[in-house]
Structure prediction request, 130 residues.
Amino acid sequence: MTKLFTPGCGLMLYKPDLATRLHELLSSNLGPMEMSLTCCRHVPALASGTEVINICPGCDRRYRENYTDSGTHSLWEVLVYCVSCAKAMFIGGKRPRYLIDLLFDEETIPKTLDPDLWHHELDVFIESHT
Prediction:
């Protein structure tokens, strides 16, 4: 069985170095696995039986619904808050802590708060990682 870590577009735009560190942490605890930057909206070349570990709730849903010959496990089944959730909390006047930042003792920086700009950044990343 092949394991694959897919950090998702949001984390790669937010702090790609944390995606690498999280990949290393998962590999050291769950066994060796590759990391894929292919967006789940494109057809990732998954071998039958691949176990995908993902971060994004949208990716988790897409892998569960569209790639039924592979398994998916969301990191958020254990941890909570995606990058978009942290942004929403910040806009709402809260001081969010993105849990991957907490794992690595990093400051949570909301960066782009305008939803249209954030979605544009996501679209650009998705198109460049097909």
